[in-house]
Amino acid sequence: MSQKEQIIPTRMNLALLKDRQASAVKGHSLLKKKVDALTMRFRAVQHQIFAAKQEAVQKLSAASLALAQAQYAAGSLFSLATQQAASASVHIVEHTENVAGVLLPRLLHLHSGRRLDGARRSHPRWRRRPGCAQAVHRRAAATSSSS
Question: Residue 97: beta bridge partners?
């Protein structure tokens, strides 16, 4: 059995109820907009994941064939690859993205100090050594001004 709110029927209470109803309708529409924005973002990420999977399948099949050909021609390449690998060339940086007031994690894939979209990104070790980053910037500026 539900209890109903006891309200004295006056004009003041009618105005208060109308304000509460207007606030509820506005809140509902804001939540609907938030759901729509999150749904659009989810579908965009889902599309990116599908495209990345398709690309990975194609690259893995080509890489598997190339590895088989290289092993047939040169034998085992594991020892040679481990000797030449000095440090990781791929880094992952985590950022947060605000979508309709909701903070979503976003991972950026860095390859050899460059983003995949081509924008320059500092190497993670340079954060600890600012002088190194400044020297690299000076060299890049000198190279671009001399051309």
Answer: 104
Tokens for 78, please give them: 């594991």
The pLDDT tens digits for 8-46 are 889 999 999 999 999 999 999 999 999 999 999 999 999
List the structure tokens of 21.
């109803």
Contact 108, 48 (CB under 8 A): no
Mind listing the pLDDT tens digit for each residue in 86-142?
A: 777 777 888 888 888 888 888 887 776 444 444 444 444 444 455 555 666 666 666
Q: Tokens 């994941």 identify what position? A: 49
- Three-class secondary structure of residue 50 per DSSP: helix
Report the SS3 class of residue 120. Answer: strand
Are 137 and 144 in contact by the 8 Å Cβ rule? The answer is: no
